[in-house]
Structures
1.
Amino acid sequence: MAKRTFATAINCMDGRVQEPVLRWMKQQLEVDHVDMITEPGPDKMMTAGPLETLESIKRRVTISVNAHGSRVVAIFAHADCAGFPASKEEHLIALCKCVDVVKSWMFPVRVLGLWIDADWQVEQVFDSKA
Ligand SMILES: [Zn+2]
């Protein structure tokens, strides 16, 4: 059997974004499976949340990268986020910081930052390879 490929999503717990995230990851990154790491307002949690939450996210990314061989970590922020009620501009500033945080972990991965708008369309805004 061919080896199954994985990518990693750091995503909001919001039920409305799960399918758009999964669809985008599978289509754009051409992977078989997506490891989902969810928090309410992950872009806020990673930049202004408790350190334990950041460490917990890092532990989960480590499993995805080391055990599943993920080579892409994508961080998603979205409109109408109950965990981080803020403007798109504020979300993008936080998202940019999140990309830097994940890059600082020094995993052998490409790091993406994505915005999901009020119509659940996914827009790629940061790419560590770009
Ligand atoms: Zn949210």
Note: Residues 88-104 form the longest helix (17 residues).
2.
Amino acid sequence: MDAIQQIEPWFDREEADALQRYMLSGGWVTEFRQTEEFERRLAEFTGAGHCIVTTSGTISLTLALLALDIGPGDEVIVPDLTMIATPNAVRLAGARPVFVDVEAATLNIDIAQVAAAVTPATRAVIHVSLNGRSNDITALRALCDGHNLRLLEDAAQSLGSFSDAHHLGTIGDMGCLSFSPPKVISTGQGGAVLTNDDDLAIRARKIKDFGRTRGGHDVHDTIGYNFKFTDVQGVIGIEQMKKLPWRLNRKKEIWSLYRERLAGVNGVEFVETDLDRVAPWFMDIYLDDRDGLAAHLHRLGIGSRPVYPPIHRQEAYDLGHLSFPVSERFSSRGLWLPSSSQLSDDQVARVCGGVREFFSA
Ligand SMILES: Cc1ncc(COP(=O)(O)O)c(C=O)c1O
């Protein structure tokens, strides 16, 4: 039987044909009209006033921090349970990440603990909508406003997910998306900054293009870098955007299938997920013997992946003396099951059969 991967990107004929047309059109490959069209579609889909694409989600977060003028001497509060790019972007901007625990209901940053972590050096909070789920970002926004802090949303996993009426990534001062291969749509690598603030958008565009005051000339009034996209990625992104609604719907169907088929399995837990607002990116379950189940699925040719280690336990951060109990509990028990939107119902049934077999052994 064919192996089932935990996640796979999905490109097909439309991307190949569009790329061929583009390459034969004499384009310069670097970012231009195709990139602008991809940005326009992302802004329209998310409702953001501005969308600025960059080389990756990590660089989008870094660019947003630089546009917000955050750097050396500044502290930025981040959740302990996230992909390591969140705090690493803070480091890349020259600031210091300060970690707080997540809340069990959503695995988002614990807002009460954010309040307790604010110091005179705090300049910003990064909210991570892990797996498309969100908590009360409006309350976090009010807390930030009360302390004169910037709010940045890491919505790398949240394209197609909403907090009430707002697309995630559009509630804070700035928000970031990622188009790396495991994401619901991908451009190979890539990321985007969303904002409704005209001045921040202008700053971010300048910083991503060497600090140029306008395109194509060499007058610089700001320190900037080269975080530019390419039109080859733009072409792929436009085709992927056309498929996005179908894929988001399919992710919700796959989530529902897992829930139904694993409902009676004692020992498997899910995080509550409101499919009216959330398009789950990865199908996450929580159980005691996570590594045992992963090994069992591997023997059946089924891929899975453990949820991120807590950041404070990563050697890179050397903060093992700290303790964040919710982050530790969900990290040690969390497993991502096969999650690609191209999974068939039969494949999901095969994965669920493997999980049931493990629990009945
Ligand atoms: C929450 C989160 N933030 C940031 C990133 C970084 O994005 P990229 O891989 O595009 O740099 C990821 C990537 O998976 C992520 O999941």
Note: The chain has two domains: 13-238, 244-360.
